[in-house]
Amino acid sequence: MKNLYLLLCSLPLVSCSVTPPKLGVSGEVLQDCPITPNCISSMDNDSHDIAPILFNGSMAEARGKLVSIINSLPRTTIVEERDNYVRVEFRSQLIGFVDDVEFLLSQEQGDRTKIDFRSASRLGLSDLGVNKARMKNVKALFSQ
């Protein structure tokens, strides 16, 4: 019982110390998701895929709205923000596990912006659908 208690108490420390995997833009795309089911991406062509966010407006307007949405969500930290890229860390409520979320904005024809994204857990194999649910929520908030 004592060992289980020590394990549970040390999990927050472990989750905070794990460094993020290789992230960022390579060419005009985000990194691919690993084969594990704890990642969702609008750029993958496999079982991890989900449609990107489409916004009628400029990239600057889209980024402003995106940052506003991210700041309204609990336990988020914007780690990097550029004209066409935003990287965010989301922490779970109970233990503080970190999910790395990236957004890549590109101007489409006319005054339309496409926002691709990648959301992945740093640890474990399964996220119990948390990343997919999060991105569906962000998309829903964006369409309001």
Overall mean pLDDT stands at 85
Separation of termini? 49 Å
Beta-strand share of residues: 25-35%
| Total strands | 8
Secondary-structure element series = HEEEEHEEEEH
- Gyration radius from CA atoms, angstroms: 16 Å
Structural class: alpha+beta
Could you name the key traits of this structure?
two-stranded antiparallel ribbon; alpha+beta; 144 residues
Q: Could you explain how this protein is built, in words?
A:
This protein is of the alpha+beta class and 144 residues long. It is built from three helices and eight strands; from the N terminus they run H-E-E-E-E-H-E-E-E-E-H. It is globular.
Summarize the structure.
This protein has 144 residues and is an alpha+beta fold. It has 3 helices and 8 strands.
Write the layout of secondary structure elements.
Layout: H1 2-17, E1 25-26, E2 29-30, E3 39-41, E4 53-56, H2 59-72, E5 76-82, E6 85-91, E7 98-108, E8 112-121, H3 130-143
Antiparallel strand pairs: 1-2, 3-8, 4-8, 5-6, 6-7, 7-8
